[in-house]
Amino acid sequence: MSGNNRTTVSSPTTNPHPSRPLIHQVRRMFVILLVTIVGALALLAYFQRRLIYHPEITSRMTVSDFGLDRCGFDVTVPTHDGLDLYGWLVLAKSSKRVDSNNLGQAITNDRLVVLYFPGNAGHRGYRMSQLMRLQSLDVHALLVDYRGYGDNAGHPTEAALARDARTVWDHLTEKLGVSPGRIVIYGESLGGGVATRLASELCQGGMIPAGLIVQSTFDSLVAAAQFHFPYLPVSWLLIDRFPSATRITQVTCPVLSIHGSRDSIVPFVNGQRLFAAAPPMSNSGVTKKMLTLPNTDHNDVYGGQDTSLMIEGLDRFFDERLTSTNQEPDQ
Questions:
Q1: Does residue 188 form part of some domain?
Q2: What is the pLDDT of residues 157-172, one digit of tens each?
Q3: Count of domains in the chain?
């Protein structure tokens, strides 16, 4: 056969522009992806707070329910948004029993008042040992549960806890008449984030507390969460961040940090970073102090091998603050 009879196969013409149906499909996929991401973030925003806050909800708790009748009082603090926050005030061991109507008179004597912010679990009933230890050191102690904890209504968030903390401070200073210079702000674990923010804001406003104690707490909740969830991008997903290392730079009152070197919840290095961020000295010339508990984990500060060491450190800090406060006029 002749070689002139060849069959020519033409290649299909490629359309450089996608068809309208394809554009619609891409747009639809984009919208679905966007809705999915937004929905996932909304779910994460809801559930992450369940990972952060672990309240135990119960019926109304009074001091008599826990055997604190002889030294304790029930306290109610109204919030800015219409809630009632319940808590306890435990008087120092040297205080005389007074009527609840004269409570302000009982705590404006020559003793310090510890404003205690607890960790993220349970309710104030689980802090009986802390309250009684503080009482034995002859300081008054006020613990008002967070919203959503114990017998309190509401839902905890970083912003809400910060507003409530300031409300409790105002209740203590304005309604009960305690001088700011006689109040030591004490934060345990998550409460360290609440306490540091309160102390920072007060110091910036010129209302200097007697001191700030941070126990078993973090430099930021982001850093603590990253330790427990190393494969998640918590640095941009976390809503309640508690950046304490940034806030403590504005704290001008004396600072005491307490941390167990075996802490498995908030690693010791987190406490070290927070302490390093604090000013080296208060505005009154008191050097910051860190008390390391070598045999202590996260939840045995008040009942572990180093409890006596911790109590000695607290007692010394309180004595120094009380001596300093008694030498200065009330603010």
A1: yes
A2: 999 999 999 999 999 9
A3: 1
